Amino acid sequence: MRLSRFFMPILKENPKEAEIVSHRLMLRSGMVRQQSAGIYTWLPLGKRVLDKVNAIIREEQNRSGAVELLMPTLQSAELWQESGRYDAYGKEMLRIKDRQDRPMLYGPTNEEMITDVFRSFIKSYRNLPLNLYHIQLKFRDEIRPRFGTMRSREFLMKDAYSFDLDREGAVHAYNRMFTAYLRTFSRMGLRAIPMRADTGPIGGDLSHEFIILADTGESEVFCHKDFLDFPIPAEDIDFNDAGALREVFDKWTSRYAATSEMHDESAFEAVADTDRVAARGIEVGHIFYFGTKYSEAMGAKVQGPDGKEHAVHMGSYGIGPTRLVPAIIEASHDENGIIWPDAIAPFGAVIVNMKSGDAACDEASESIYRALSKADLDPLYDDTDDRAGTKFATADLIGVPKQVVVGPRSVANGEVEIKDRKTGARETLTIEAAINRLTQAG
Q: How far apart are CA 41 and CA 33, in angstroms?
Protein backbone atom coordinates (compact mmCIF):
# COMPACT_ATOMS: atom_id res chain seq x y z
CA MET A 1 0.00 0.00 0.00
CA ARG A 2 1.29 3.45 -0.96
CA LEU A 3 0.72 5.98 1.77
CA SER A 4 -0.21 8.60 -0.83
CA ARG A 5 -3.24 6.43 -1.69
CA PHE A 6 -4.09 5.25 1.81
CA PHE A 7 -6.59 6.90 4.13
CA MET A 8 -4.75 7.48 7.40
CA PRO A 9 -5.71 10.83 8.96
CA ILE A 10 -2.85 11.55 11.39
CA LEU A 11 -3.52 14.06 14.18
CA LYS A 12 -0.57 16.27 15.13
CA GLU A 13 -1.92 17.22 18.55
CA ASN A 14 -3.00 14.96 21.40
CA PRO A 15 -6.82 14.75 21.55
CA LYS A 16 -8.11 16.38 24.72
CA GLU A 17 -10.82 13.75 25.22
CA ALA A 18 -8.32 10.88 25.42
CA GLU A 19 -7.74 9.83 29.04
CA ILE A 20 -5.42 6.87 28.46
CA VAL A 21 -2.50 6.11 26.15
CA SER A 22 -4.30 3.68 23.85
CA HIS A 23 -7.19 6.06 23.20
CA ARG A 24 -4.77 8.89 22.44
CA LEU A 25 -2.63 6.80 20.10
CA MET A 26 -5.59 5.24 18.29
CA LEU A 27 -7.02 8.69 17.57
CA ARG A 28 -3.67 10.25 16.66
CA SER A 29 -2.69 7.44 14.29
CA GLY A 30 -6.05 7.49 12.51
CA MET A 31 -7.17 4.05 13.65
CA VAL A 32 -10.63 5.11 14.85
CA ARG A 33 -13.00 8.05 14.89
CA GLN A 34 -15.64 8.64 17.54
CA GLN A 35 -19.13 9.00 16.05
CA SER A 36 -21.00 9.49 19.32
CA ALA A 37 -20.55 8.58 22.97
CA GLY A 38 -19.01 5.12 23.09
CA ILE A 39 -19.52 4.44 19.36
CA TYR A 40 -16.60 4.39 16.91
CA THR A 41 -15.80 4.00 13.24
CA TRP A 42 -12.80 1.77 12.65
CA LEU A 43 -10.73 3.53 9.98
CA PRO A 44 -8.53 1.57 7.53
CA LEU A 45 -5.42 1.37 9.75
CA GLY A 46 -7.43 0.19 12.74
CA LYS A 47 -9.49 -2.18 10.61
CA ARG A 48 -6.30 -3.88 9.42
CA VAL A 49 -5.24 -4.58 12.99
CA LEU A 50 -8.74 -5.65 14.01
CA ASP A 51 -8.93 -8.08 11.08
CA LYS A 52 -5.64 -9.71 12.11
CA VAL A 53 -6.82 -10.04 15.69
CA ASN A 54 -10.05 -11.65 14.47
CA ALA A 55 -8.13 -14.01 12.17
CA ILE A 56 -6.05 -15.36 15.08
CA ILE A 57 -9.15 -15.73 17.25
CA ARG A 58 -10.95 -17.55 14.44
CA GLU A 59 -8.04 -19.91 13.76
CA GLU A 60 -7.75 -20.93 17.40
CA GLN A 61 -11.50 -21.36 17.82
CA ASN A 62 -11.59 -23.58 14.74
CA ARG A 63 -8.55 -25.51 15.97
CA SER A 64 -10.32 -26.22 19.26
CA GLY A 65 -13.31 -27.70 17.43
CA ALA A 66 -15.72 -24.77 17.66
CA VAL A 67 -17.94 -24.16 14.62
CA GLU A 68 -18.64 -20.65 13.32
CA LEU A 69 -22.07 -19.20 12.54
CA LEU A 70 -23.48 -15.67 12.62
CA MET A 71 -26.46 -14.60 14.70
CA PRO A 72 -28.37 -11.31 14.28
CA THR A 73 -27.66 -8.28 16.43
CA LEU A 74 -31.38 -7.58 17.03
CA GLN A 75 -33.09 -10.13 19.22
CA SER A 76 -36.69 -10.81 20.19
CA ALA A 77 -37.51 -9.88 23.77
CA GLU A 78 -39.52 -13.12 24.02
CA LEU A 79 -36.34 -15.20 24.23
CA TRP A 80 -35.04 -13.14 27.13
CA GLN A 81 -38.41 -13.30 28.84
CA GLU A 82 -38.21 -17.08 28.60
CA SER A 83 -34.85 -17.17 30.34
CA GLY A 84 -35.94 -14.63 32.96
CA ARG A 85 -33.19 -12.14 32.09
CA TYR A 86 -35.22 -9.52 30.22
CA ASP A 87 -36.16 -7.57 33.31
CA ALA A 88 -33.13 -8.61 35.36
CA TYR A 89 -30.42 -7.46 32.95
CA GLY A 90 -30.75 -3.76 33.75
CA LYS A 91 -30.44 -0.47 31.90
CA GLU A 92 -27.39 -1.60 29.93
CA MET A 93 -29.79 -3.42 27.61
CA LEU A 94 -31.05 -1.23 24.76
CA ARG A 95 -34.74 -2.06 24.43
CA ILE A 96 -36.62 -1.07 21.26
CA LYS A 97 -39.86 -1.85 19.41
CA ASP A 98 -40.37 -2.58 15.75
CA ARG A 99 -43.20 -1.08 13.63
CA GLN A 100 -45.53 -3.86 14.75
CA ASP A 101 -44.94 -2.76 18.35
CA ARG A 102 -43.10 -5.99 19.14
CA PRO A 103 -40.44 -5.64 21.87
CA MET A 104 -36.90 -6.14 20.57
CA LEU A 105 -33.42 -5.54 21.94
CA TYR A 106 -29.94 -4.87 20.60
CA GLY A 107 -28.13 -7.95 21.86
CA PRO A 108 -25.60 -7.49 24.66
CA THR A 109 -24.88 -11.24 24.57
CA ASN A 110 -26.37 -14.34 22.91
CA GLU A 111 -27.04 -17.10 25.45
CA GLU A 112 -30.78 -17.02 24.79
CA MET A 113 -30.55 -16.93 21.01
CA ILE A 114 -27.99 -19.72 20.74
CA THR A 115 -30.10 -21.85 23.10
CA ASP A 116 -33.05 -21.28 20.79
CA VAL A 117 -30.94 -22.31 17.77
CA PHE A 118 -29.77 -25.42 19.59
CA ARG A 119 -33.22 -26.56 20.75
CA SER A 120 -34.59 -26.16 17.23
CA PHE A 121 -32.26 -28.79 15.76
CA ILE A 122 -30.51 -30.95 18.37
CA LYS A 123 -32.60 -33.69 19.99
CA SER A 124 -30.11 -36.49 20.77
CA TYR A 125 -26.93 -36.84 22.82
CA ARG A 126 -25.36 -38.34 19.67
CA ASN A 127 -25.03 -34.79 18.29
CA LEU A 128 -22.99 -33.72 21.30
CA PRO A 129 -20.60 -32.21 22.19
CA LEU A 130 -21.17 -29.01 20.24
CA ASN A 131 -19.58 -25.57 20.41
CA LEU A 132 -20.89 -22.74 18.23
CA TYR A 133 -19.30 -19.29 17.98
CA HIS A 134 -19.51 -16.06 16.07
CA ILE A 135 -17.77 -12.68 15.88
CA GLN A 136 -20.47 -10.03 16.00
CA LEU A 137 -21.27 -6.49 17.14
CA LYS A 138 -22.88 -6.13 20.56
CA PHE A 139 -24.35 -3.15 22.40
CA ARG A 140 -24.39 -2.38 26.11
CA ASP A 141 -25.60 1.04 27.11
CA GLU A 142 -22.74 1.90 29.46
CA ILE A 143 -23.63 4.74 31.79
CA ARG A 144 -20.16 6.18 31.30
CA PRO A 145 -18.38 4.92 28.19
CA ARG A 146 -14.71 5.87 28.35
CA PHE A 147 -11.20 4.98 27.29
CA GLY A 148 -12.08 4.78 23.58
CA THR A 149 -12.88 1.29 22.35
CA MET A 150 -11.65 -0.15 25.64
CA ARG A 151 -15.03 0.56 27.21
CA SER A 152 -17.44 1.49 24.47
CA ARG A 153 -21.17 0.99 24.07
CA GLU A 154 -20.99 -0.77 20.71
CA PHE A 155 -18.24 -3.37 20.49
CA LEU A 156 -17.18 -6.47 18.62
CA MET A 157 -17.35 -9.74 20.52
CA LYS A 158 -16.29 -13.29 19.81
CA ASP A 159 -18.74 -15.34 21.81
CA ALA A 160 -18.79 -19.13 21.80
CA TYR A 161 -21.34 -21.44 23.43
CA SER A 162 -20.79 -25.08 24.34
CA PHE A 163 -23.42 -27.82 24.78
CA ASP A 164 -22.74 -31.10 26.56
CA LEU A 165 -24.75 -33.94 28.04
CA ASP A 166 -23.36 -33.63 31.56
CA ARG A 167 -21.04 -31.61 33.79
CA GLU A 168 -18.04 -33.78 32.98
CA GLY A 169 -18.38 -33.04 29.29
CA ALA A 170 -19.04 -29.37 29.97
CA VAL A 171 -15.87 -29.06 32.08
CA HIS A 172 -13.90 -30.59 29.20
CA ALA A 173 -15.46 -27.98 26.88
CA TYR A 174 -14.45 -25.30 29.40
CA ASN A 175 -10.87 -26.59 29.40
CA ARG A 176 -10.85 -26.57 25.59
CA MET A 177 -11.62 -22.86 25.60
CA PHE A 178 -9.22 -22.23 28.49
CA THR A 179 -6.43 -23.79 26.42
CA ALA A 180 -7.50 -22.06 23.18
CA TYR A 181 -7.50 -18.70 24.95
CA LEU A 182 -3.96 -19.18 26.25
CA ARG A 183 -2.83 -19.90 22.68
CA THR A 184 -4.84 -17.04 21.18
CA PHE A 185 -3.35 -14.33 23.39
CA SER A 186 0.15 -15.78 23.17
CA ARG A 187 0.03 -15.60 19.36
CA MET A 188 -0.68 -11.88 19.70
CA GLY A 189 2.46 -11.40 21.77
CA LEU A 190 0.58 -11.25 25.06
CA ARG A 191 0.87 -13.04 28.37
CA ALA A 192 -2.74 -13.34 29.51
CA ILE A 193 -3.23 -14.46 33.10
CA PRO A 194 -6.38 -16.50 33.85
CA MET A 195 -7.98 -15.22 37.05
CA ARG A 196 -10.85 -16.65 39.07
CA ALA A 197 -13.83 -14.37 38.50
CA ASP A 198 -17.42 -13.68 39.47
CA THR A 199 -20.04 -15.05 37.05
CA GLY A 200 -22.27 -11.95 37.27
CA PRO A 201 -25.53 -11.87 35.26
CA ILE A 202 -24.33 -14.71 32.99
CA GLY A 203 -24.74 -17.18 35.85
CA GLY A 204 -23.03 -20.40 36.83
CA ASP A 205 -20.35 -21.46 39.31
CA LEU A 206 -17.13 -21.54 37.28
CA SER A 207 -15.56 -18.53 35.60
CA HIS A 208 -12.16 -17.11 34.64
CA GLU A 209 -11.12 -13.73 33.31
CA PHE A 210 -8.03 -13.47 31.13
CA ILE A 211 -6.07 -10.37 32.07
CA ILE A 212 -2.97 -8.75 30.59
CA LEU A 213 -0.85 -6.59 32.86
CA ALA A 214 -0.91 -2.86 32.13
CA ASP A 215 -0.44 0.14 34.41
CA THR A 216 -3.70 1.71 33.21
CA GLY A 217 -5.76 -1.45 33.79
CA GLU A 218 -9.06 -1.17 35.65
CA SER A 219 -8.58 -4.44 37.58
CA GLU A 220 -6.23 -5.15 40.44
CA VAL A 221 -4.38 -8.43 39.93
CA PHE A 222 -2.96 -10.69 42.63
CA CYS A 223 -1.03 -13.75 41.55
CA HIS A 224 1.99 -15.99 41.94
CA LYS A 225 4.94 -14.91 39.79
CA ASP A 226 4.82 -18.27 37.99
CA PHE A 227 1.75 -17.01 36.14
CA LEU A 228 4.06 -14.72 34.18
CA ASP A 229 6.15 -17.58 32.85
CA PHE A 230 4.08 -20.74 32.43
CA PRO A 231 4.48 -22.52 29.05
CA ILE A 232 1.80 -22.05 26.41
CA PRO A 233 0.11 -25.19 25.00
CA ALA A 234 1.59 -26.29 21.68
CA GLU A 235 -0.21 -25.96 18.36
CA ASP A 236 -0.54 -29.73 18.06
CA ILE A 237 -2.19 -30.24 21.45
CA ASP A 238 -5.03 -32.77 21.20
CA PHE A 239 -8.22 -30.90 22.04
CA ASN A 240 -10.05 -34.23 22.34
CA ASP A 241 -7.73 -35.40 25.11
CA ALA A 242 -9.59 -34.46 28.29
CA GLY A 243 -6.62 -35.47 30.47
CA ALA A 244 -4.16 -33.28 28.57
CA LEU A 245 -6.46 -30.26 28.73
CA ARG A 246 -7.15 -30.83 32.41
CA GLU A 247 -3.39 -30.82 32.94
CA VAL A 248 -3.15 -27.44 31.21
CA PHE A 249 -5.94 -26.06 33.39
CA ASP A 250 -4.43 -27.45 36.59
CA LYS A 251 -0.97 -26.16 35.74
CA TRP A 252 -2.27 -22.64 35.31
CA THR A 253 -4.62 -22.66 38.29
CA SER A 254 -2.51 -24.51 40.87
CA ARG A 255 -1.03 -21.19 41.99
CA TYR A 256 -3.19 -18.49 43.58
CA ALA A 257 -4.54 -15.95 41.10
CA ALA A 258 -7.41 -13.52 41.47
CA THR A 259 -8.70 -10.08 40.61
CA SER A 260 -9.71 -7.52 43.20
CA GLU A 261 -13.35 -8.61 42.84
CA MET A 262 -12.46 -12.19 43.83
CA HIS A 263 -9.48 -11.47 46.09
CA ASP A 264 -9.07 -14.00 48.89
CA GLU A 265 -6.71 -12.13 51.19
CA SER A 266 -5.76 -15.18 53.25
CA ALA A 267 -4.91 -17.20 50.13
CA PHE A 268 -2.72 -14.41 48.75
CA GLU A 269 -0.95 -14.07 52.07
CA ALA A 270 -0.11 -17.77 51.87
CA VAL A 271 2.04 -17.02 48.80
CA ALA A 272 5.64 -16.26 49.73
CA ASP A 273 6.51 -12.55 49.60
CA THR A 274 9.16 -13.19 46.94
CA ASP A 275 6.60 -14.96 44.74
CA ARG A 276 3.78 -12.40 44.93
CA VAL A 277 2.72 -10.17 42.06
CA ALA A 278 0.30 -7.34 42.79
CA ALA A 279 -0.34 -5.23 39.71
CA ARG A 280 -3.03 -3.77 37.49
CA GLY A 281 -4.46 -5.41 34.41
CA ILE A 282 -7.00 -5.28 31.60
CA GLU A 283 -9.59 -7.99 31.01
CA VAL A 284 -9.41 -9.28 27.42
CA GLY A 285 -11.44 -12.48 27.72
CA HIS A 286 -13.97 -14.16 30.01
CA ILE A 287 -15.19 -17.76 30.10
CA PHE A 288 -18.13 -19.27 32.01
CA TYR A 289 -19.64 -22.62 32.83
CA PHE A 290 -23.26 -22.17 33.90
CA GLY A 291 -24.71 -25.66 33.75
CA THR A 292 -28.39 -25.95 32.90
CA LYS A 293 -29.45 -22.37 33.72
CA TYR A 294 -30.65 -21.59 30.19
CA SER A 295 -31.43 -25.09 28.96
CA GLU A 296 -33.82 -25.73 31.86
CA ALA A 297 -35.57 -22.40 31.43
CA MET A 298 -35.86 -22.69 27.66
CA GLY A 299 -36.39 -26.41 27.18
CA ALA A 300 -33.10 -27.24 25.49
CA LYS A 301 -33.09 -30.97 26.18
CA VAL A 302 -31.75 -34.05 24.44
CA GLN A 303 -32.48 -37.72 24.72
CA GLY A 304 -29.65 -39.39 26.62
CA PRO A 305 -28.24 -42.93 26.22
CA ASP A 306 -30.70 -43.97 28.96
CA GLY A 307 -33.65 -42.94 26.79
CA LYS A 308 -34.56 -40.08 29.12
CA GLU A 309 -34.54 -36.34 28.41
CA HIS A 310 -31.65 -34.35 29.83
CA ALA A 311 -31.21 -30.58 29.99
CA VAL A 312 -27.86 -29.87 28.34
CA HIS A 313 -24.96 -28.32 30.25
CA MET A 314 -23.72 -25.09 28.73
CA GLY A 315 -20.85 -22.65 28.84
CA SER A 316 -20.08 -19.33 27.16
CA TYR A 317 -16.73 -17.88 26.17
CA GLY A 318 -16.04 -14.29 25.18
CA ILE A 319 -13.18 -12.29 23.72
CA GLY A 320 -13.65 -8.62 22.85
CA PRO A 321 -11.51 -7.84 19.77
CA THR A 322 -12.33 -4.10 19.86
CA ARG A 323 -11.25 -4.10 23.52
CA LEU A 324 -8.23 -6.27 22.86
CA VAL A 325 -6.67 -3.85 20.35
CA PRO A 326 -6.34 -0.93 22.82
CA ALA A 327 -5.31 -3.36 25.56
CA ILE A 328 -2.37 -4.46 23.41
CA ILE A 329 -1.41 -0.82 22.89
CA GLU A 330 -1.54 -0.20 26.64
CA ALA A 331 0.88 -3.10 27.09
CA SER A 332 3.13 -2.23 24.13
CA HIS A 333 4.00 1.41 23.40
CA ASP A 334 6.60 4.07 24.09
CA GLU A 335 6.72 7.87 24.03
CA ASN A 336 6.78 7.87 20.22
CA GLY A 337 3.77 5.67 19.57
CA ILE A 338 2.49 2.12 19.23
CA ILE A 339 4.73 -0.96 19.10
CA TRP A 340 2.72 -3.73 17.43
CA PRO A 341 3.54 -7.41 17.90
CA ASP A 342 4.44 -8.88 14.50
CA ALA A 343 1.32 -11.07 14.22
CA ILE A 344 -1.19 -8.20 14.33
CA ALA A 345 0.77 -5.30 12.85
CA PRO A 346 -1.20 -3.44 10.16
CA PHE A 347 1.71 -3.79 7.72
CA GLY A 348 4.70 -6.10 7.52
CA ALA A 349 7.14 -3.22 7.07
CA VAL A 350 7.10 0.49 6.32
CA ILE A 351 9.41 1.90 3.64
CA VAL A 352 10.52 5.47 4.44
CA ASN A 353 11.69 7.28 1.33
CA MET A 354 13.64 10.14 2.88
CA LYS A 355 13.75 12.14 -0.34
CA SER A 356 10.78 11.53 -2.60
CA GLY A 357 11.53 12.91 -6.05
CA ASP A 358 15.18 11.88 -5.91
CA ALA A 359 15.62 9.41 -8.76
CA ALA A 360 17.91 7.03 -6.86
CA CYS A 361 15.78 7.03 -3.71
CA ASP A 362 12.59 6.55 -5.72
CA GLU A 363 14.07 3.67 -7.70
CA ALA A 364 15.41 1.89 -4.61
CA SER A 365 12.16 2.39 -2.69
CA GLU A 366 10.09 1.09 -5.60
CA SER A 367 12.26 -2.02 -6.01
CA ILE A 368 12.00 -2.81 -2.29
CA TYR A 369 8.25 -2.17 -2.34
CA ARG A 370 7.77 -4.54 -5.29
CA ALA A 371 9.91 -7.26 -3.72
CA LEU A 372 8.19 -7.13 -0.33
CA SER A 373 4.76 -7.04 -1.98
CA LYS A 374 5.65 -10.06 -4.12
CA ALA A 375 6.68 -11.90 -0.95
CA ASP A 376 3.25 -11.10 0.61
CA LEU A 377 4.85 -9.00 3.35
CA ASP A 378 2.21 -6.32 2.77
CA PRO A 379 4.47 -3.25 3.08
CA LEU A 380 3.43 0.38 3.51
CA TYR A 381 5.46 2.70 1.24
CA ASP A 382 5.67 6.29 2.46
CA ASP A 383 5.94 7.95 -0.94
CA THR A 384 4.55 11.29 0.25
CA ASP A 385 6.32 14.65 -0.07
CA ASP A 386 6.52 15.11 3.70
CA ARG A 387 9.83 15.92 5.34
CA ALA A 388 11.97 13.03 6.54
CA GLY A 389 11.33 13.93 10.19
CA THR A 390 7.58 13.78 9.66
CA LYS A 391 7.89 10.42 7.95
CA PHE A 392 9.96 9.00 10.80
CA ALA A 393 7.45 10.28 13.34
CA THR A 394 4.58 8.70 11.40
CA ALA A 395 6.38 5.36 11.14
CA ASP A 396 7.02 5.33 14.89
CA LEU A 397 3.47 6.42 15.70
CA ILE A 398 1.74 3.64 13.74
CA GLY A 399 4.05 1.03 15.24
CA VAL A 400 4.96 -1.18 12.25
CA PRO A 401 7.67 -3.58 13.54
CA LYS A 402 10.25 -2.97 10.78
CA GLN A 403 11.18 0.29 9.08
CA VAL A 404 13.23 0.40 5.86
CA VAL A 405 14.95 3.78 5.63
CA VAL A 406 15.96 4.80 2.11
CA GLY A 407 18.18 7.90 1.99
CA PRO A 408 20.39 9.50 -0.70
CA ARG A 409 23.65 8.81 1.09
CA SER A 410 23.02 5.14 1.77
CA VAL A 411 21.48 4.48 -1.64
CA ALA A 412 24.59 5.92 -3.29
CA ASN A 413 26.44 3.00 -1.69
CA GLY A 414 23.74 0.52 -2.69
CA GLU A 415 22.52 0.24 0.89
CA VAL A 416 19.48 0.93 3.09
CA GLU A 417 18.89 0.90 6.82
CA ILE A 418 16.52 -1.41 8.71
CA LYS A 419 15.21 -0.17 12.04
CA ASP A 420 13.51 -2.37 14.60
CA ARG A 421 10.59 -0.40 16.05
CA LYS A 422 10.61 -2.20 19.40
CA THR A 423 14.33 -2.10 20.23
CA GLY A 424 15.39 0.87 18.12
CA ALA A 425 18.27 -1.21 16.74
CA ARG A 426 19.48 -0.16 13.30
CA GLU A 427 21.32 -2.18 10.70
CA THR A 428 22.79 -1.09 7.37
CA LEU A 429 22.51 -3.67 4.61
CA THR A 430 22.71 -3.87 0.86
CA ILE A 431 19.31 -3.52 -0.79
CA GLU A 432 19.30 -7.20 -1.74
CA ALA A 433 20.33 -8.29 1.77
CA ALA A 434 17.66 -6.05 3.33
CA ILE A 435 14.98 -7.61 1.13
CA ASN A 436 16.18 -11.11 2.00
CA ARG A 437 16.28 -10.31 5.71
CA LEU A 438 12.71 -8.98 5.75
CA THR A 439 11.18 -11.67 3.55
CA GLN A 440 12.85 -14.49 5.49
CA ALA A 441 11.67 -12.97 8.78
CA GLY A 442 8.15 -12.60 7.41
A: 5
